[in-house]
Amino acid sequence: MSEVSAGRLEIARLSTADADFETRLDALLAWEGVSDDEVQRRVADILEAVKTRGDAAVVETSNRFDRLSASSMADLTLGPDRLRQAFDGLPEAQREALATAADRVRRYHEHQKPESWQYTEDDGTVLGQQVMPLDRAGIYVPGGKAAYPSSVLMNALPAHVAGVGEIVMVVPTPDGVLNELVLAAAHLAGVDHVFTIGGAQAVAALAYGTETVPRVDKIVGPGNIYVATAKRAVFGQVGIDMIAGPSEILAVSDGGTDADWLAMDLFSQAEHDEDAQSILVSWDGDHLEAVGEAMARLLPTMEREAIIRTSLAERGALIHCRDRDEAVALINRIAPEHLELSVEAPQDWLPEVRHAGAIFMGRYTAEALGDYCAGPNHVLPTSGTARFSSPLGVYDFQKRSSLIGCSAEGASTLGRTASVLARGESLTAHARSAEYRIRD
Ligand SMILES: NC(=O)c1ccc[n+]([C@@H]2O[C@H](COP(=O)([O-])OP(=O)(O)OC[C@H]3O[C@@H](n4cnc5c(N)ncnc54)[C@H](O)[C@@H]3O)[C@@H](O)[C@H]2O)c1
Ligand SMILES: N[C@H](CO)Cc1c[nH]c[nH+]1
């Protein structure tokens, strides 16, 4: 099928029966942002500037890219009193909603807490694993095109549950506009430091440290291509969680879900960013038409119409497949950040869904509920990386050390095995170190 407009809606319409389906799907899924040469160059320059000139470079780049007029980092630093003031000043309904979301997110993540463990072998040798939190984590809260108080909770609360010693948050404030909900969420989630900086300069400040911004052990959180590219570049200097780029939704419908509901679910991710991706798959052609019509009708009512329109035109699609099996194959091929299973018995699909950041089951489970308050994390792998990455979680803020404690008898037994293998590698010191402990 070719590109068509439903009303004034421009969106790709694909059919798995078309000869060029594979090529068109590949083109649709490619997100070249992170490997774009110009972006790479710009990010490399910013990283180098911050690494060598610290605060001065952070201030300069923030003024430039976020249209600020800061004269020093003091202008880009918020203390605990300012965060509390934001929380106390919220209208009651917002304070309650934030607290409800925080409670649910915290409770969900408590279930993820991995425990240290040990076991003792017959000869008294102890083996195990010790789990420890990171000393200091940096959380990136996006803020270029929208403000994300929910992302403050999603980043900071699992860090807290993990027992991280210090949480440093960065968030851009384009044109100097502070978002009170974001600051209130930082207060509620127990963030230790807040710097109103974003983009590659914020990632660099966290990775290398500056006179003002403490260097962290790991940087987590989503962001645009500048943030994603910078995170990838500083990996190794610090840990990173994943590349969480522009939002995505793949909805699969059996035709039984209200077309307006699905249209709005697709819009909900498209409104994040022109680079966001919204795809609907169904084997019911009439239903796809109905959703296309609903989208065309509802689009002019959206506050972020322009962003949604571009996102749908550039990266959206309505895909007609033959049957349920083809829908499952598409899910695993696309490996979406968010998968909505808008079908009759979603649980039956689970054993076959191998790749998806988060799976929303059934017609009532709007993806947007997961964005804010269902409980699971909304920082999720994008661009097909759900093939090998998982949602942000408590485990991202911890690391594991192996434990090995040999009894005299265990050292002797293991020493014989180690000696043979070490001599096979011609590593004599290894062999003799083990052999000293072998009993006659
Ligand atoms: N996957 C998730 O969990 C998740 C959650 C929320 C948001 N998101 C995504 O995060 C992204 C947020 O992007 P955003 O732009 O709104 O905010 P952002 O905070 O990621 O980026 C804003 C920063 O980008 C930098 N920047 C902008 N233009 C630049 C340029 N030309 N050169 C150098 N630097 C530049 C600026 O420093 C600015 O502070 C969206 O794509 C959204 O879909 C993802
Ligand atoms: N959909 C985003 C994750 O891709 C998270 C979010 C925050 N606010 C609204 N949505």
UniProtKB/TrEMBL annotation:
Organism from which the protein derives: Halomonas halophila
Essential cofactor(s): Zn(2+)
Designated name of the protein: Histidinol dehydrogenase
Protein family membership: Belongs to the histidinol dehydrogenase family.
EC number: 1.1.1.23
Amino-acid positions noted as binding Zn(2+) in the UniProt annotation, renumbered to this chain: 269, 272, 371, 430
Top-level taxonomy: Bacteria, Pseudomonadati, Pseudomonadota, Gammaproteobacteria, Oceanospirillales
The UniProt record lists the keyword Transport: no
Protein purpose: Catalyzes the sequential NAD-dependent oxidations of L-histidinol to L-histidinaldehyde and then to L-histidine.
